[in-house]
Amino acid sequence: MLQTLVNAFKSKDVRKKMIFTLILLFIYRIGAWMPLPGVDVAQFAAGVVGEGGFFELLSSISGGALENGAILALGVAPYINSSIIVQLLTFIIPSWQAMSKQGDAGKKRIQMYTRIGTLVMSIAQAVGIVLAFNSDGLLFRGVWQGAPEWVTGVIVVMLLVAGGLFVMWLGERITEKGVGNGLSLILFVGILSTAGTMLYRAAEGAVDGNLNYLWNILIFLVAVLVIFTAIVFIDLSQRKIPVQYSNQMRGRKMYGGQATHIPIKINSSGVMPIIFTMAIVGLPQIMMAMFWPTSTAYEWYSDYMGMGSWPYIVITSVMIFGFTFFYNQLIFNPEDVARQIQQNGGFIPTIRPGKPMVDYLKKVTNRITFFGAIFLATLALVPALVFKGLAGDAGLSNLLVNSFSATGLLIVVTVALEFNRQLEAQLLSKQYRGFLNK
User: Fold this and answer.
1) 249-283 per-position pLDDT tens digit
2) pLDDT band at 39 (very low <50, low <70, confident <90, very high)
3) Which residues lie closer than 8 Å to 364 by C-beta, 6 or more apart?
4) With left for phi above 0 and alpha for psi between -120 and 50, is residue 248 left, alpha or beta?
5) Which phi and psi (to 5°) does residue 142 adopt?
6) Distance (Å, rounded) from C-alpha 185 to C-alpha 416?
7) How far apart are CA 51 and CA 94, in angstroms?
8) β-strand partners of 259
9) Which residues, other chains included, contact 160 with Cβ-Cβ below 8 Å and sequence gap of 6+?
10) Nearest CA-CA partner of 77 in 156, 161, 136
């Protein structure tokens, strides 16, 4: 990967794209530190860290932007939620499913719906944040002395919504003119920034003479190294189903006669099952944090069923296991694959065409998905158990669990590998263009 980066900087075109990407990511990090007017940043940060649930998780994936009371506090969360909803509707609504198969025109319409959904989710999350934190007295009139309190709330909501849409715009520009998927890179940078902040706090504690923090750092680094290695190993693992294509005469030319394979990855669903599970399991706590933050029910739920609690960890692992099978059925249909193979004159050796081929593909995918589901469920369980067992203060422990949860670990590794693949693809494409121009 380091060699790929070196080669990329040697290429003028790729180097420009990488510099453009870094500049936009730097702009995002500046926005993650620009405070909202009318917000007491110190009290706001104390409320986020002490809450230990949805808001701390939202702050961790945005690189501490919510903890800083920043304009870009929403980060990529509205776009991610909107993308999940639109993707599910695409599978459920027949007209949307047909639209997704209409090429670039269909993709543009789906992208438009995703942007509209991002606006709606940004408004909903901004209003929820203002209601939750204003009930604790963390908002104040600030520069608008003498103005009604709701004026400050409206302005803060407008700025948060504008920040959420600006992050979406940054991500789309990186995807269009930079290298890699822009929103994934923004999420990647946010998670790494949170991890860096956590390590800095732990280092401060170790310097002050608290050896527990030193052990925290060592155990954390070893655990992350082991988990990263496992993620990379599973992400690159795949089962290759051999496919043989027979010779076919089309006009005066002979086609086919080649051997290929169908690659089926162990973790083909990526982080989607984890995101689906977190959206469903965390919904009750999110709603109570937004609208009933001072209620007894919210305190009980946060202590016994909230994010980071033992029931939450177990329920999350079980649901991830089930959602992995569900999502895999959405993205890989054995009947469609078998039909395409037969239409192109192909066959799987020792497997009869028709229903036997479909049954064979189902059996193989179910077995592979089973191991992928176990991997994702374990990945959701083990980091939380390891990081919750670390000594030190509760805030540091919560930050560990949130910043390097199963989602964070998978996103960091997956985005890094995908970024490396895109760099290699662009370098290879440039070599081909140079070869053809000679």
Assistant:
1) 565 665 556 777 888 888 777 777 776 777 677 67
2) confident
3) 239, 241, 264
4) beta
5) 55, -120
6) 9
7) 42
8) 244
9) 36, 71, 73, 74, 122, 125, 126, 129, 130
10) 161
